[in-house]
Design a protein that fits this description.
Layout (H helix, E strand, L loop, with lengths): L6 E5 L3 E7 L14 E7 L1 H11 L4 E7 L3 H12 L3 E7 L5 E7 L5 E6 L8 H14 E6 L5 H14 L2 E4 L9 H4 L4 E4 L1 H8 L6 H13 L4 E5 L5 E5 L4 E4 L12 H15 L4 H15 L12 H10 L3
Parallel strand pairs: 1-4, 1-8, 2-6, 4-5, 8-9, 9-10, 10-11
Antiparallel strand pairs: 2-3, 6-7, 11-12, 12-13
Helix pairs in contact: 1-8, 3-4, 6-7, 8-9, 9-10
C-alpha cells in the first residue's frame, strides 16, 4: 500500500563521538594537551536520521548499538528526536565510537571504532525490511556499516519501488550493480573522486563529476563542496549550482550529514524540487557548522526556515 509510505528509513551507523578540542593536531609521536573533552551522539547514519527528523520528516532507524551504557544513551537520544527505533539491533560488545580532534581552525581528524556497527548484517536488514517497505518511501544509506548490509538494503529497495538515497561515506568505490539502483547519490569531493576519479573543487569540475556519475547509471547526483557550494545533475539533463551560505565555522563535524538529512526531508518529505531542497539543506548545514558537536549542532525546521528568510540569495 504505497500511499501509507510516509517515512524515511535510515539504515546506517550509530556512534558515540568523543571530541577533544586542541590548539593544533599532534604530530606522530607528539603528546599534546587537549583544551576540553565532550561526548556527543554521532555516527553518519544517526546524524542523518536526526537531521531528517529535525527538518520535519518521519524517520525510522535501522542499525545496531552495543550492550554498553553508550548504546542505551544513543537509543534514548534518537527517541528524543521522535525517531522510530524498533528496528535497532543490540549486539554483544561495545557501541560504535569516534575519537575526534578539532583544532582552532575548526578542522577535524577522526578515528572510527566500528563496534556494533560492524556487526550489522544483511540478515538484520532483511529481518526489518517488511516494516521499512510498508512505511517508508525512501531509504537513506552511508558507508559506516558492512557493505553486505548496505547492498541488501539497496536491492530490497529497488525491488520494492522504494527510493534509494546513498552517501558513500567514508569514501568507497560503489559496485556498478548497486550504482545503477541508486536514485539520489550525494557525494563530497573525496567520495566523488573515489567513485569516478574526478575530484571536484569548483562548479565546472563538479559538473564534470556529476555528469560522469549520471552516465554510470545514477538518476540524480549531488556533489557537495563545503563552502564552495553544491552542484546537481540528473539523467533528464537538469542541473543547478547552489552556493553555500557564508559563515564562520566553529566545528565542521557532521556538516555533510546535516546537509544530507535535511535535503532528504525537504525533497522526499516536503516535495521541494532538488535545487530548493539543496538550498534548505545548505541553510541547515550553515547553521550546524557554527555550533559544536555532530547531532548537538543540527538545527530544527523552524530555525532553517528563519535562516532562509534572513539570508535571501
Amino acid at each position: 500500500m504505497a500511499h501509507n509510505r510516509e517515512a524515511i528509513a535510515v539504515i546506517g551507523s550509530i556512534n558515540m563521538d568523543v571530541v577533544n578540542r586542541v590548539k593544533a593536531h599532534p604530530q606522530p609521536g607528539e603528546t599534546i594537551h587537549g583544551l576540553s573533552t565532550a561526548y556527543f551522539a554521532g555516527g553518519k547514519g544517526a546524524n542523518q536520521a536526526v537531521a531528517a527528523a529535525r527538518s520535519g520528516a518521519q524517520v525510522r532507524m535501522v542499525g545496531a548499538v552495543g550492550q554498553d551504557d553508550f548504546g542505551r544513551q544513543l537509543v534514548e537520544g534518537l527517541q528524543a528526536d521522535g525517531i522510530q527505533v524498533s528496528a535497532l539491533e543490540v549486539k554483544e560488545g561495545l557501541s560504535g565510537m569516534a575519537f575526534i580532534a578539532v583544532d582552532d581552525a575548526g578542522e577535524n581528524s577522526i578515528i572510527l571504532s566500528q563496534g556494533a556497527n560492524g556487526q550489522l548484517t544483511a540478515n538484520d536488514v532483511v529481518k526489518h525490511w517488511p516494516v521499512v517497505q510498508e512505511q517508508c518511501r525512501a531509504v537513506l544509506l552511508q558507508n559506516e556499516i558492512p557493505w553486505a548490509a548496505t547492498a541488501a538494503a539497496i536491492h530490497a529497495a529497488a525491488d520494492a519501488g522504494v527510493k534509494v538515497y546513498m552517501n558513500p561515506a567514508p569514501a568507497c568505490k560503489v559496485p556498478e550493480a548497486e550504482l545503477a539502483c541508486i536514485d539520489v547519490l550525494i557525494v563530497n569531493e573525496s567520495e566523488a573522486e573515489a567513485i569516478c576519479g574526478i575530484q571536484p573543487h569548483d562548479e565546472a569540475s563538479a559538473q564534470h563529476a556529476a555528469k560522469t556519475l549520471v552516465m554510470s547509471g545514477v538518476k540524480t547526483v549531488i556533489v557537495t563542496m563545503g563552502e564552495q557550494g553544491a552542484y546537481y545533475a540528473n539523467h533528464e539533463d537538469q542541473a543547478a549550482f547552489v552556493p553555500a551560505y557564508r559563515v564562520q565555522a566553529v566545528d565542521t563535524t557532521g556538516a555533510g550529514d546535516t546537509f544530507i538529512g535535511a535535503f532528504c526531508a525537504a525533497h522526499e518529505g516536503k516535495g521541494l524540487s532538488v535545487p530548493e531542497a539543496m538550498r534548505f539543506a545548505a541553510a541547515a548545514s550553515a547553521i550546524a557548522v557554527t555550533r559544536s558537536g555532530a547531532q548537538a549542532a543540527i538545527p530544527h525546521e523552524q530555525e532553517i526556515m528563519r535562516w532562509i528568510e534572513q539570508h535571501p540569495s
